[in-house]
UniProtKB/TrEMBL annotation:
The lineage of its organism: Bacteria, Pseudomonadati, Pseudomonadota, Gammaproteobacteria, Pseudomonadales. This is NADH-quinone oxidoreductase subunit F. Belongs to the complex I 51 kDa subunit family. Composed of 13 different subunits. Subunits NuoCD, E, F, and G constitute the peripheral sector of the complex. The keyword NAD applies.
Length: 447
């Protein structure tokens, strides 16, 4: 997978004016360390925030920019920051970076951490200043060993330069930053499960309210933001709200740019920083180059395994939350996957649901029991042993595990692709239903 392919045949020039996240990237894919980062205007935004802006002004600027969370949920970042308590007597607060990037088909945060670790650190430093947090943690997916090495080196460089630690930039503000590697659980992408894991507890989601802004890590006010979200903060502070909003295409309700990608049997799989509002067709044809010779596009997911499948005719949808919602699913992480015409949708869904069933924390009954049930039914259909009524049972599970029916959003995300696959490719599921005379009920030993 090409992590530094940012335009059709790499022909698009990246600049600070149009590509705030990626313009500093090196052509050789190596990491940008402190000296080079500062030579490319790195930490200038942090110096501005510390010298010229009140803490509340930083929060308001981010709120006015329209920046939304880039982890998949899309909650307004400034609003989330505004939930942190205003009481100055609460002197212990935490900032957590959610870097537990385990969504299948998503690798955007990995690229940022491996190649631009100081961009994340600068984003966290400005955010910590705004939120009055004295300690931060980057909760990192354990398998991201290169990212861990690069982040730890960058943290040490920033400490040595007086950009982390005590009395940062002579401001009297202290901020310590630590890299914490997780043990490998998808559910840690949910912010309260992440908090439990960081505390050394089982990674179960917590009941909300209270929200982390009130009761988070070790019972203290805590803000959790995604890697890509935090990496947007320096450019917003440096260049302003109006500029940031101008980056998005006309018609988009989401502001700025987004790391988007395409994987699958496309000619140029990769990752690109693009303005919100580009169409799926531009992403697929102009950047990913369309399907490889000999393959046809059958379906695609717009933003990770937890988003619904779309058809080729949906490629004209604009890539922002509302644009993708118009065609019946979610933007998610913005990294799309092409499904080619050689793929059987039942087998694909069985594989996905096995992953989601395995990664369930097991806390609530619909998720704990419903996802394995869907796997058993899909395995039977895949083997041509499905029973009449199995498809209806699967659709029933899609409803029972939908939004608002489970403790967290794990199960709703898990069944969204299942429901859309049956909607668009029901005939492939029906092909796995055995004749009535040969059907064996699940309770009689069907595996």
């Amino acid at each position: 997978m090409t992590l530094t392919s940012f335009g059709p045949a790499n022909r698009i020039k990246r600049s600070a004016e149009t590509h705030p996240l990626t313009w500093r990237l090196r052509d050789d894919g190596e990491a940008v360390w402190l000296d080079e980062y500062q030579a490319k205007n790195g930490y200038a935004a942090a110096r501005k925030a510390f010298a010229d802006m009140a803490q509340d002004d930083i929060v308001q600027t981010v709120k006015d920019s329209g920046l939304k969370g880039r982890g998949g949920a899309g909650f307004p970042t400034g609003v989330k920051w505004g939930l942190m308590p205003k009481d100055e007597s609460i002197n212990i607060r935490y900032l957590l970076c959610n870097a537990d990037e385990m969504e299948p088909n998503t690798w955007k945060d990995r690229m940022l951490m491996e190649q631009l670790p100081h961009l994340l650190i600068e984003g966290m430093l400005i955010s910590a200043r705004a939120l009055k947090t004295y300690r931060g943690y980057i909760f990192l997916r354990g398998e991201y060993t290169t990212a861990a090495k690069h982040l730890n080196r960058a943290v040490e460089e920033a400490k040595a330069a007086g950009l982390l630690g005590k009395n940062i930039l002579g401001s009297g503000f202290d901020f310590e930053l630590f890299v914490h590697t997780g043990a490998g659980r998808y559910i840690c992408g949910e912010e309260t499960a992440l908090i439990n894991s960081l505390e050394g507890r089982r990674a179960n989601p917590r009941s909300k309210p209270p929200f982390p802004a009130a009761v988070g890590v070790w019972g203290k006010p805590t803000c959790v933001n995604n890697v890509e979200t935090l990496c947007n903060v320096p450019a917003i502070i440096a260049d302003g709200v109006d500029w940031y909003k101008s980056l998005a295409r006309e018609g988009s309700e989401d502001m700025g740019t987004k790391l988007m990608g395409f994987s699958g049997k496309v000619k140029n799989p990769g990752l690109w920083e693009l303005p919100f509002g580009v169409t799926g067709r531009e992403l697929f044809e102009d950047y990913a180059g369309g399907m490889r010779d000999g393959y046809k596009l059958k379906a695609w997911q717009p933003g990770g395994a937890g988003t619904g499948f779309l058809l080729p005719e949906h490629l004209d949808a604009q890539m922002y939350a509302g644009g993708i919602a118009k065609v019946g699913t979610r933007m998610g992480t913005g990294l799309a996957m092409a499904v080619d015409d050689s793929v059987n949708m039942v087998s694909l869904l069985r594989n996905m649901e096995q992953f989601f069933a395995r990664e369930s924390c097991g806390f609530c009954t619909p998720c704990r029991d419903g996802l394995p049930w869907s796997v058993k039914l899909l395995m039977a259909i895949e083997n041509g042993e499905g029973q009449p009524g199995d498809i209806e049972t699967l659709l029933g599970l899609v409803g029972f595990l939908g939004p608002g029916k489970t403790f967290c959003a794990h199960a709703p995300g898990a069944v969204e692709p299942l429901g859309s696959a049956i909607k668009y490719f029901r005939h492939e599921f029906e092909a796995g239903i055995a004749p009535v005379s040969a059907a064996v009920p699940l309770w009689q030993g069907r595996s």
